[in-house]
């Protein structure tokens, strides 16, 4: 879309682009074209050609064409015409129209399509609004006419008409109205304001449209101040648009050469009905109310379905609406789509909820033959939905396909956000197909389950590694990692899910080619829905990374399974022998796990090693489900890191217990407390994180891996250390991503017991709290509370029985959901239970811990030292069984970091005026002084070019009020600073030491210390994410800011 025609215009125009008025944008001519082009005489025909065989009054009558554009024209077939025209001599601009048409039609064997193409391509190659003419152009020359177009004294339609007539092609000028950049989508169509002209040319016995103006100019960056961008493809944003007329840019748009009438009609409405060239003409009302569609819609072969919304302005029903389309299944795998949702700033609506983030309320479904956007609104109001698309084979720029205006009079009740908003959308689409997957059991985007149990089967036509990630708005990811497993069996991948409670879940699948290291790409997403409120599904036994069978790292460590290749085993006698071959320098250890406390008490593993052959005899006398995880580490290595090389799920039929052993009840409440595994998800921007070892355990080892990735050994550094009386693992994450760390107690026989599972999500500091679902949901709690109470009053009395209430409490405790737990405790207390009820005491203790954890998160979000001190104290008081150790350590580090930032800030703010004046008096500052201020000013947002000049630094230092250095330092936060800026500042002061600077200037030394400290903080957190360059290049629009790689084009 952004390619530039080469020869003619580039040699004739200036690079500057003048402002363009709306009349230019509409393409309305102020005067007629020159007579030589309006109605050329016979003598104007090219030499050697016969004059036209028709008279202007005898042109064929308008009627619908018998064929489509694709039947008579393709770029490939007529490429020779473009090549010829784009090499036209620049002097043609200065010559006569006769000379121009002689050149454009010199090839006698060209058909009418080729002639029309030559005229179209030459006219559109000229960047009219950037032409700069230093002197008066020759009279009646093409250049003179282009300057008249610049002055609104001519237009493209008259020029094309004259040239076609000179070439012997019947051509008419069509007057009407079009939906240009000046048109406000959804508004009434006014002929006076929307007037425009375009052409119809008679080719191969049919009339065909041509709009050279829309094909060569588009308005980029036009914005209306009435809209706020609230959701950009699932990314949180609250960007108010500033009013902007945008600028006209030159781009050649092939759509407007011979477009089909049924596609052009929705932007170009002729005054005369016959010139619609439609078998069934439309009315002005149809034109006005039809959904706003653009050429990318047709390029991608998108079609409306019987269920599609054809009107531009829509109304929601119960706070939701669906926008379905059909896609061509033979090529939709190459399509990509994005959306942008705006909220009207002035329309009536729910302004009280203006602070509610509106990300993750749009479900985007993309399958082989369909595209659908399902919107739900937690707020009432007026919204605008822009949908963008691209074909990856032709472009990397998203262009507008269509726009809807959506009125939501009433918000959806209890409207929760989706668990995720994946950029590739939901359902089996192109990414899954390209990965070699085939939908065996589910090809739609949404899976409904009554009991929360789902089995998904996928065929595999390539050697790939498949990874899964289960997400929910309420339940944290570390907990959910135990409710999903994946295995490969008989050439198929099978994903098993057990949902812990009702609601919506996102199952995200990622794929790497076998043997390919690094992060896997997201290829397929399902939205799982379960409306059952009283689920009692238990998690799977522990599988380290959720994948059964051989892990990608096994080959790198030299470990091979000898006995069982598949990850699922059925043991009829309750016993299984697992055999492996390993390098002589490798040690294998094993974790045997069950969620049944009774089974845990009786299960055993007997390991032994003979000449590199490892045997694990597994005894599982209690019937049920078990898991075995095999880990490898180097013998004699003091490093406490282990690597998961194989995982198995074993269904045991059990066997009789040995004499003296007692089979206890599975439902014994006291035995349930025996299994205590800390499970937490934490968010951080720091490269390094300290993971505390639960108290009371000595020989602890750790397994660390990046989720949905196949990393080689030591991809992330892991170091065991002791600090302030605590045992810690220090993990270093060079890349952003999601990581899982499991801590195990290792006994003398090499058997492991899981102590803790932490999911660490490292994100850029600027994104750290953007998708905090808990914070978002808290904003909706007040609206939902009354509805919950109404539902509870309607419950059957049977649900109020003591046993049911206890189950509710236990389920809330298992999920660590404070809202559910608080409601369950209140309902249970209403039955007047004994004060010393053990379950009630445990529930209250956990609730206080969860509330303390929430307060820690909120204080960390606000970055308030006072709030952090208070939250840390509460967390320490509420902590038990080491459940909050990690959060307390992280909050303590943040507090220390903020203390340090505050100290550095005050060191600058406390400088007296005399010290600052001393620095400003330097005419030629000592070495290091300029550099210290240069680094500080770079961090504060000044440009490299400016701060390289000492006089500019002096000027910056002397500013007062809101622009003063002190004011900017007072408000500086390292998390908002770009990493590349910090690195530039670092390079400036790196050659110097504090002592060097202090020896020549105490004031400069203060700036040096502040800059150095801030740089270290930015480096530690990764700083703010600068928008991707491609995204910035493509974020302009014709109507509303189309960021995130989208472009809008309006003529």
UniProtKB/TrEMBL annotation:
Top-rank lineage group of the source organism: Eukaryota
Q: Where is the Transglutaminase-like domain?
A: 111-212
Q: Please give the InterPro entries that the UniProt record associates with this protein.
A: Ig-like_KY, Papain-like_cys_pep_sf, Transglut-like_Superfamily_Mod, Transglutaminase-like
Residue ranges of the KY-like immunoglobulin-like domain?
285-419, 435-541, 557-654
Pfam families per the UniProt record, alphabetical: Ig-like_KY, Transglut_core
Q: Where is the composition biased (Polar residues)?
A: 1-40
**Basic and acidic residues composition bias: residue spans:** 785-803, 1026-1036
Note down the stretches annotated as region Disordered: 1-70, 784-803, 1019-1051
Q: Which PANTHER family match?
A: HILLARIN (PTHR47020)
Q: What is this protein called?
A: Kyphoscoliosis peptidase
The species this protein belongs to is Magallana gigas
């Amino acid at each position: 879309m952004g390619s530039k025609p080469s020869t003619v215009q580039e040699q004739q125009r200036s690079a500057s682009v003048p402002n363009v008025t709306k009349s230019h944008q509409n393409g309305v001519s102020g005067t007629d074209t020159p007579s030589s082009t309006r109605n050329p005489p016979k003598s104007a025909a090219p030499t050697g050609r016969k004059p036209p065989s028709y008279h202007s009054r005898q042109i064929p009558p308008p009627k619908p064409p018998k064929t489509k554009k694709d039947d008579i024209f393709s770029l490939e077939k007529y490429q020779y015409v473009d090549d010829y025209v784009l090499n036209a001599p620049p002097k043609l601009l200065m010559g006569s129209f006769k000379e121009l048409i002689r050149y454009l039609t010199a090839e006698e064997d060209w058909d009418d399509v080729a002639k029309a193409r030559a005229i179209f391509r030459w006219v559109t190659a000229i960047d009219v609004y950037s032409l700069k003419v230093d002197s008066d152009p020759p009279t009646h020359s093409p250049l003179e006419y282009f300057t008249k177009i610049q002055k609104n004294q001519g237009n493209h339609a008259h020029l094309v008409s004259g040239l076609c007539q000179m070439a012997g092609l019947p051509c008419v000028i069509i007057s009407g109205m079009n939906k240009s950049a000046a048109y406000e989508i959804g508004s009434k169509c006014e002929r006076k304001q929307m007037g425009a002209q375009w052409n119809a040319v008679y080719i191969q016995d049919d009339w065909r449209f041509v709009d050279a103006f829309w094909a060569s100019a588009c308005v980029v960056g036009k914005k209306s101040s009435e809209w706020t961008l609230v959701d950009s493809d699932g990314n949180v944003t609250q960007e108010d648009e500033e009013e902007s007329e945008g600028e006209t840019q030159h781009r050649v748009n092939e759509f407007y050469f011979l477009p089909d009438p049924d596609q052009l009609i929705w932007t170009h409405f002729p005054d005369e009905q016959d010139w619609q060239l439609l078998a069934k003409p439309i009315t002005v009302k149809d034109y006005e109310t039809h959904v706003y569609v653009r050429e990318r819609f047709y390029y991608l072969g998108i079609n409306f379905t019987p269920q599609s919304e054809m009107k531009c302005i829509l109304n929601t029903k119960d706070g939701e609406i669906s926008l379905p389309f059909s896609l061509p299944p033979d090529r939709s795998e190459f399509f990509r789509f994005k959306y942008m949702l705006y909220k009207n700033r002035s329309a009536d609506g729910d302004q009280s909820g203006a602070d509610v983030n509106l990300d993750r309320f749009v479900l985007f479904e993309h399958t082989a033959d369909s595209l659908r956007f399902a919107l739900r609104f937690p707020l009432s109001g007026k919204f605008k939905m822009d949908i963008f698309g691209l074909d990856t084979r032709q472009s990397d720029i998203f262009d507008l396909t269509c726009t809807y205006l959506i009125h939501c009079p009433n918000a959806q009740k209890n409207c929760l956000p989706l668990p995720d908003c994946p950029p590739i959308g939901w359902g089996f689409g192109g990414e899954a197909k390209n990965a070699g997957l085939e939908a065996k059991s589910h090809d739609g985007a949404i899976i409904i389950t009554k009991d929360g149990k789902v089995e998904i089967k996928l065929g595999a036509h390539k050697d790939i590694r498949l990874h899964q990630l289960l997400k929910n708005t309420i339940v944290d990811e570390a907990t959910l990692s135990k409710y999903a497993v994946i295995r490969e069996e008989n050439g198929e991948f099978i994903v098993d899910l057990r949902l812990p409670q009702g609601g919506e879940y996102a199952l995200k699948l990622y794929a790497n080619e076998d043997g390919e290291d690094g992060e896997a790409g997201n290829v397929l997403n399902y939205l799982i829905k379960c409306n059952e409120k009283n689920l009692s599904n238990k998690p799977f036994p522990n599988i380290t990374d959720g994948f059964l069978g051989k892990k990608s790292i096994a080959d790198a460590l030299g470990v091979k399974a000898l006995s069982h290749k598949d990850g699922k085993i059925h043991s009829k006698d309750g016993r299984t022998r697992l055999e492996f071959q390993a390098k002589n320098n490798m040690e294998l250890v094993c974790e045997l796990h069950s969620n049944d406390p009774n089974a845990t008490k009786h299960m055993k593993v007997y390991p032994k090693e003979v000449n590199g052959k490892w045997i694990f005899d597994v005894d599982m006398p209690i019937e049920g489900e078990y898991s075995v995880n095999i880990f490898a580490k180097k013998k004699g290595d003091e490093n406490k890191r282990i690597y998961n090389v194989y995982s198995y799920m074993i269904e045991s039929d059990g066997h009789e217990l040995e004499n003296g052993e007692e089979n206890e009840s599975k439902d014994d409440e006291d035995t349930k407390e025996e299994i205590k595994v800390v499970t937490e998800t934490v968010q951080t921007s720091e490269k390094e994180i300290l993971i505390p070892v639960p108290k009371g355990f000595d020989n602890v080892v750790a397994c660390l891996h990046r989720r949905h990735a196949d990393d080689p050994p030591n991809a992330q550094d892991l170091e065991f250390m002791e600090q302030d009386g605590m045992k810690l693992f220090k993990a270093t994450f060079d890349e952003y991503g999601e990581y899982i760390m499991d801590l195990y107690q290792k006994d003398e026989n090499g058997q492991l017991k899981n102590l803790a599972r932490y999911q660490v999500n490292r994100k850029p500091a600027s994104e750290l709290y953007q998708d905090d679902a808990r914070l978002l949901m808290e904003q909706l709690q007040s609206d939902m509370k009354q509805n919950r109470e109404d539902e509870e009053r309607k419950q059957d009395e049977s649900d109020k029985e003591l046993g049911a209430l206890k189950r509710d409490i236990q389920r809330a405790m298992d999920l660590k959901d404070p809202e559910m737990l608080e409601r369950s405790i209140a309902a249970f207390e209403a039955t007047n239970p004994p004060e010393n009820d053990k379950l009630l005491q445990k529930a209250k203790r956990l609730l206080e811990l969860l509330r303390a954890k929430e307060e820690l998160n909120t204080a960390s979000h606000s970055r308030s030292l006072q709030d952090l001190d208070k939250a840390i104290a509460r967390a320490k008081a509420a902590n038990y069984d080491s459940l909050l150790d990690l959060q307390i350590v992280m909050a303590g580090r943040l507090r220390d970091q903020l203390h340090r930032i505050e100290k550095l800030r005050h060191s600058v703010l406390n400088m007296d005026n005399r010290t600052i004046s001393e620095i400003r008096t330097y005419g030629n500052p000592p070495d290091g002084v300029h550099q210290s201020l240069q680094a500080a000013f770079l961090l504060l947002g000044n440009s490299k070019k400016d701060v390289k000049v000492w006089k500019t630094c002096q000027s910056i230092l002397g500013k007062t009020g809101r622009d003063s250095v002190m004011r900017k330092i007072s408000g500086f936060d390292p998390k908002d600073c770009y990493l590349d800026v910090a690195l530039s500042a670092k390079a400036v002061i790196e050659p110097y030491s504090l002592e060097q600077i202090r020896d020549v200037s105490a004031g400069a030394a203060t700036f040096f210390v502040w800059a150095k400290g801030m740089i270290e903080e930015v480096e530690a957190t990764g700083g703010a994410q600068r928008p991707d360059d491609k995204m910035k290049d493509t974020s302009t629009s014709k109507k509303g800011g189309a960021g995130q790689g989208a472009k809008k084009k309006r003529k």
